[in-house]
Amino acid sequence: HVTRGVIIDHPTAFTMGEMGGGSITGVLAHNMLFQGGDNGNDSCILLHPYGNHAIFQGEQESQQQSMIGTSGIYEGGIMKLMDEADEGNIDPNGCKFFFNFVEFTDSELASLLESEDSDGDAWASVEAPPSIILDNDWNRGDAWSRIRNNIRTHLRNNN
After folding, report:
1. CATH number of the domain to which 30 belongs
2. Gene3D superfamilies from the xrefs (predicted)?
3. Bridge partners of 39?
4. Which of 7, 57, 61, 108 has the highest CB neighbour count under 10 A?
5. What angle do CA 114, 120, 124 make, to 5 degrees?
6. Domain count, the chain
């Protein structure tokens, strides 16, 4: 079994319009492309919060959206979302594009979560709201810095 994810705060210097080879047009072409990881054979992933939105009601089963876990985040639906963004029915800032992804086997993930470096830093599994995951304005390291500071504040206030 493998677990896949994306690095949410590693923007590239490019928009989807610049890197999409003409396949991403309209309003969504202006969205930044994020480096999601080193795996994926140069694939692109679109994450968004619109899976339960009225725009997907009545779609064929192959076009219906499945939520990732309990996150409120969905993957795919690019053609429908391009049309809806161009028509002003959805906020294009809710759509975030990733180039590739990270991937861990169960044993790799367990090892990471158990390890600690010489500075006392360790990996942690956290759940973040869609507003953090889908934010298109993060610079490299910003999201984790914000989450880490929130955890520190929470721990200080509860001790």
Report:
1. 3.40.1740.10
2. VC0467-like
3. 101
4. 7
5. 45
6. 1
Give residue-wise pLDDT tens across range 8-65: 999 999 999 999 899 999 999 999 999 999 999 888 999 999 987 767 766 554 455 7
CB proximity list for 25: less than 8 A, separation 6 or greater: 17, 82
Pairing type for strands 96-105 and 32-35 reads parallel
Strands, DSSP E only, in 68-147? Answer: 74-75, 96-105
CB 43 within 8 A of CB 103: no
- Cβ atoms of 71 and 130 within 8 Å: the answer is yes
Find the domain containing 11 and state its range.
2-157
Between the two ends of the chain, the Cα-to-Cα distance in Å is 37
